[in-house]
Design brief:
Layout: H1 2-15, H2 20-33, H3 40-44, E1 48-50, E2 54-56, H4 62-78, H5 86-94, H6 102-108, E3 113-122, E4 125-134, E5 142-148, H7 154-170, E6 175-181, H8 188-192, H9 205-217, E7 221-231, E8 234-243, E9 246-253, H10 260-267, H11 277-293, E10 300-308, E11 312-320, E12 327-333, H12 340-344, H13 356-359, H14 366-381, E13 389-390, E14 394-398, E15 402-410, E16 416-424, H15 430-436, H16 447-463, E17 470-478, E18 483-491, E19 497-504, H17 511-515, H18 528-541, E20 544-553, E21 559-568, E22 572-581, E23 585-597, E24 602-611, E25 614-623, E26 632-643, E27 648-659
Parallel strand pairs: 1-3, 2-3, 6-8, 9-11, 12-15, 16-18, 19-21
Antiparallel strand pairs: 3-4, 4-5, 7-8, 10-11, 13-15, 14-15, 17-18, 20-21, 22-23, 23-24, 24-25, 25-26, 26-27
Helix pairs in contact: 1-2, 4-7
Length: 664
């Protein structure tokens, strides 16, 4: 307290230097004697004492009432308000006989404010009433109340009470409530979520300005205003909003060659979305681009917005498609080695021809054109032009004529194949590996052949168990001789075995059916070609919609785990037919077949043909792996009956068949 007095009087000294010596002596004397030199008002400050709550009504337990005092003290402390210790307060209150004298307790505990409260339970709700008494009797008293809808919300309610107490004793205007008015479609809770000002807060106009901006930034309103009104305890803050209209109707006019549903997908605007002029403008641009992709480069589109009832608007797109525009000419600039016709033959994009109405050639598709540019670029690189570059196509539209596409080409010099070598980890003679590659047989450098050589060399190593083998081509260009020297650098890595093969996704098909189709097995060395054969076998079964084989590293560097994920598809079929002939009259045909019977990979078929003069029943069973060997077995049983004029023929029979793989 003496230190507080020193700061107060130092500020006074800055205004009157003549009093400094006297004040300093006074402060030192106060500190020396050990007494407080501040006035009684300064000693009390804003310290608060919270008295025990009183409970009213049935259903309020003693522990619950006692917890109210403790919880309120915690909230006040968190708000930065000094509070007398709960135990000190309760010890003094218990010592009073004949009633609690509020101001006396506050003065004895050195507090400026005393808080008394009652809790009343009505049904499930609990009403909290609080009075705030000024020990000096200068201000107040003040009264606050709040209602908790249920017991578990008492902590939140007491937090709001604590805010109110702080505002009252510090002289702030308290926010009694925050309301939203004028909203119809946008929920109030959604707006309140972006507003920082809350019930019980001190009124802060700077924060209200930020809240107003935050509400406006939501993009749903064309006007937002804030109003404060006097309330029973503090002020009510009301945000008045004027919602932007929503789109209640979307209409297309003049679209003769494009379906309305397709146009709705392109505009990027949905019914009942908030009207935004910028988005409408962008939707027009999207529609124009969509029409251009279909060849209508001369299309004209305008939007018209009109108000509708209930704060809605209609958006009408007026479309004038005009004639479809075709590609009139494709020309190249800078190509010397290859003619325009040679390059055009590589492209999917074509000029308009005599049969364009039938083949639909001559229509510009930008994705196809982009692919064509890449294809031409690769074509040059595969013919020795290692530095060739093909520029972005320039598209121009000439009204009344069509589209003109100009593609600029920089060919550069054509390079021959120079020296070819293989280095690194060799698992066989270098000469044998060199016979396996094709780049040395090419006259001009070819990137596609180089790529195939890399894959082929990797396959050779993978068939020997080197699953992580890497082949890196090192390319050196010789500017003088205009040749490209190629060196394949091989890193074989560790020889890898299959540690485990996991199968997932098969809910019907048994694991055994899948594993018997695999050409690789756990404990065997990795083999790339056998793995590809295994995947092909699984796809060939016809049981699966999709088959994914994903190898991953095992527990050690020389092991691999193979994950096989399958997605099954229906394998059963049912067919039914009705016919009529002059001999047999009405004929009924039905067949039920299952290609993966009981998930065992077996085939079962039951067929029946019935007519006025004949009947035929046929049951066929096929086992592709007889005795768990690649031997197929087939059993067929049939019963056939036909009535003739003189007699009736009745047959009962069967067939047995067996098949072996030829190994071709």
């Amino acid at each position: 307290m003496g230190l507080l007095a020193l700061f107060r009087w130092e500020r006074h000294w800055n205004q009157d230097l003549g009093t400094f010596s006297w004040l300093w002596a006074l402060v030192v004397a106060c500190l020396f004697v050990g007494i407080t030199c501040s006035s009684s008002g300064a000693s009390l400050g804003n310290k608060v004492v919270v008295l025990p709550f009183q409970g009213q009504g049935t259903g309020l337990g003693g522990e619950l009432v006692e917890s109210l005092q403790r919880t309120l003290i915690e909230h006040l402390t968190d708000a930065g308000i000094p509070v007398v210790d709960l135990l000190v307060t309760n010890r003094l209150v218990q010592g009073y006989v004949g009633g609690i004298r509020t101001r006396e307790i506050g003065a004895e505990l050195g507090a400026r404010w005393v808080v008394r409260g009652t809790a009343t339970k009505i049904g499930k709700k609990i009403s909290i009433d609080v009075s705030i008494i000024d020990v000096k009797g200068i201000k107040g008293p003040f009264y606050l109340y709040a209602v908790a809808d249920e017991v578990r919300k008492l902590k939140e309610t007491l937090g709001n009470i604590a805010k109110g107490i702080r505002n009252k004793i510090e002289g702030y205007v308290q926010v009694f409530e925050v309301k939203i008015e004028g909203n119809r479609r946008i929920e109030s809770d959604a707006i309140l979520a972006v507003i920082r000002t809350g019930k019980g807060d001190a009124l802060d106009y700077d924060q209200l300005d930020k809240d107003l901006r935050a509400v406006y930034k939501m993009g749903f309103f064309k006007d937002v205003k804030v109003e404060t009104r006097q309330a029973p305890t503090g002020v009510s803050v009301i945000f008045h909003v004027v919602e932007k209209p929503s789109i209640g109707l979307i209409v297309f006019e003049g679209n003769k060659h494009v379906d309305e549903d397709d146009l709705k997908k392109e505009i990027g605007i949905n019914l009942y979305s908030i009207y935004n002029p910028y988005e409408i403008k962008q939707s027009v641009n999207r529609l124009k681009e969509y029409y251009r992709q279909k060849g209508y480069y001369a299309v004209e589109i305008e939007s018209e917005v009109k108000p509708l009832p209930n704060n809605e608007v209609s958006v009408r797109y007026k479309i004038e498609e005009n004639e479809k525009v075709y590609i009139k000419k494709i020309e190249f600039v800078g190509n010397k080695k290859f003619s325009d016709d040679d390059l055009k033959d590589l492209m999917q994009t074509k000029e308009k021809g005599f049969f364009s109405w039938l083949s639909k050639s001559g229509v510009l598709d930008r994705k196809k054109l982009e692919f064509d540019i890449q294809k031409i670029n690769s074509f040059y690189h595969n013919h020795g032009f290692v530095k060739a570059k093909v520029g972005e196509p320039k598209i121009s539209y000439k009204p009344g004529k069509g589209l003109y596409i100009t593609i600029e080409v920089h060919e550069g010099e054509q390079y021959h194949v120079g020296k070819v070598a293989i280095e690194g980890d060799l698992i066989t003679d270098k000469e044998k590996l060199e016979k396996e590659i094709e780049i040395n047989k090419e006259e001009y450098f070819n990137r596609e052949v180089l790529r195939k050589d890399v894959l082929h060399l990797k396959d050779i190593y993978m068939e020997k168990g080197y699953a992580y083998a890497e082949v890196t081509p090192r390319i050196q260009e010789d500017e003088k001789t205009k040749t490209v020297n190629v060196t394949y650098v091989i890193s074989k890595g560790a020889k890898v075995k299959f540690e485990r093969i996991n199968i997932a996704g098969n809910t019907v098909t048994r694991d055994k059916v899948i594993r018997r189709e695999l050409k690789v097995a756990e404990g065997e060395y990795f083999n790339g070609s056998a793995l590809r054969k295994s995947m092909w076998n699984l796809q060939r079964l016809g049981y699966f919609e999709n088959v994914e084989v994903q190898p991953r590293k095992g527990s050690t560097d020389d092991t691999m785990i193979l994950d096989i994920n399958v997605k099954e598809k229906p394998t059963g079929t049912f067919s039914f037919g009705v016919g009529y002939s002059s001999v047999d009259k009405v004929m009924i045909m039905a067949q039920v077949a299952e290609a993966n019977f009981l998930g065992r990979g077996q085939k079962l078929s039951v067929k029946a043909d019935l007519s006025g003069k004949s009947s035929e029943f046929d049951v066929t069973f096929f086992e592709p792996w007889l005795f768990d060997r690649p031997i197929s077995g087939r059993v067929n049983v049939y019963k056939w009956k036909r009535e003739y004029d003189e007699y009736t023929k009745d047959s009962l029979g069967g067939e047995l068949g067996i098949g072996f793989p030829l190994g071709i």
